[in-house]
User: Fold this.
Amino acid sequence: MKATAPTAPPAAAERPTSPGRDAWLRLRRNRLAVASGVFVVLLGVICVLAPPFLGHGYADQDLSLGATPPAATHWFGTDELGRDLLARLLYGGRISLMVGFVASLVALIIGVTYGAVAGYAGGKLDAFLMRVVDILYALPFTIFVILMMVFLKQPMDQLDTWLRQFDFLKNLQGIGKIVGLFAAIGAVEWLTMARIVRGQVLTVKKMEYIEAARTLGFGHTRIIFKHIVPNLLGPVIVFTTLTIPSVMMLESFLSFLGLGVDAPLSSWGTLIKDGADKMENFPWLLVFPGGVFAATLLALNLLGDGLRDALDVRAAKD
Assistant:
């Protein structure tokens, strides 16, 4: 009797993966985007944790030292008041990064809510809400923010006085103005987010699972925020990542004009302004803040591009 060859075992079924895992795998292959994300995270950690170990405060002055170039005792040099530039750069990074992320979060919340409601409602309400966005788009953003900062000056000063009554906040000068920056910048950066979300909602609300949710009697609020918005996270995350650099640029511009944080606090914008005024005599005062700021903006933009490619549904079909 002729022996039959043993049959090969069936190939193991390919383990299914979720869209989130597929996006993460595609992002990992983009080494430039991963490196940019690591750089931003490390920079944030250093700005938060490193200053206490420097031995120099952001306001510590040594007038006898004056402006000195980088040396072993002051890695980034000192300014004309003898203040350590590295300490001021890290403390300023706290403010610049915080304004960038928090103001972007404010814009995210307003834009997603506004755009989702407009797109889901449709009809006359959608038309009215979008015309409001068009009118706001016609206003010069920078001038609008400057006017808000001017009109909010007194409330911000009152808020600063009230907050400093608390023991853990009494040493933080200008915290009211920082809160005002959050509000002013976030109040103008949500417009593009609202348009993007509205366009996505117009497509998503026609899908079968939304019709099934309506059939089951779910309320409009639940459908919007439980079923529609979670399915828009891809474009929202990408645009938020790309919004942070523009917010940081706007904050730096306001600080450059003197509408940012007050001395002795500093942000990267105020440091760049001070360095630009003295760059002919003390170039390191501009080189280091400008270099760190430019590298951060570049890293955030590269990370945003990587997230866009990783979350692109068409890339998953290639």
